[in-house]
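Write out the 3D structure for:
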Amino acid sequence: MNDFQAIADRVEIEALRGEFTDAAMMRDRPRLASLFTPDGALRMPNIPVEQVGREEIRAGGERLQSQWDFFVQTTHPGTILLDGDTATGRAYIQELARTLDGRQGVNYAVYHDRYQRTEEGWKFAERTYEVRYLDTSPLAGTAPHAARGSGTNPADATATPAPAASFTEPASAERLERVAAALRANGFAAEILDDAAEARARIKDLVPEGAGVLTGASETLRLSGIDEDINAGGRYDAIRPRVLAIDRATGADEIRRLVAGPDFVVNSVAAVTETGSLVLASGSGSQLPANAGGAAHAVWIVGAQKVVPDLSTALRRIEEHALPLENARAQAVYGMPSAVNRLLILNAEPRPGRGTVLLLREAIGY
């Protein structure tokens, strides 16, 4: 190997390490996974995590990053030892982070690396993370998004915010497949359907005639015709018409019992994450118990535009996109504004067969 080739290899490996940090900071999991060889490994014994292969590295990164309130990583150059088409090296890391459940701290660490020359350039064959110093004292700072005063967890300050247009554009076929796989891994049944008409027909297969069914206050259900099918079609024991017929001043307890534990709840969600979580928002919270587990079975119909990368983006989607639209509807129908007073996050379904998500290839609802 001549000196010029050695210099080029060192520059490319250093760029590879920088690309890793940038992909982590920007929450670009597919790009981060692509920096490894197909059988490459990422090992973090302190967590503990051991991911082998690009798909495990991508999925593991999604699970980890979905927990972040904010995360900052700085990489400092270390050694690189070349040996033909392979190399070894170390990179020195400083990080500060806070997760959505309040864990936080500053740490200094070392990545022990093995590199491999491929047709696509230099890639990581293995990265092993070793923590050298950890300080879990409370962090005094905040992510800039926290200043909005929303009362929800702020988005990751290091991530590029999803543009508003992304909250209305249907997800690609690849993203829908990824979401469906994540949902199934989390215990939900998940199906990908072409459109609302197909979902409307599928509901008749999933919900048996005569079942007690509660529908959520959902534009997706209204626009698809599913709300009318359930509440006015005569096929089911529809809960919502019964609730509307009860005097709210004298029958509050009866209403509460009716909506909390139906046979089925049919609803939509405000967002679904690529890590397989469902996020629902409500002003009163009345429909959330059935969705959370009170209903024996649940079916959620989700338009393709509701796919988001993670929980932080899901909360942004609710505040910046769904709430203004729902607020306008509430003002027109009820003469009063809406609000996000209750949030429900379903990270997994512990009862096999209870929850079914119908992911649509089209955009519908908020």
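The chain is about 35% helix and 30% strand.
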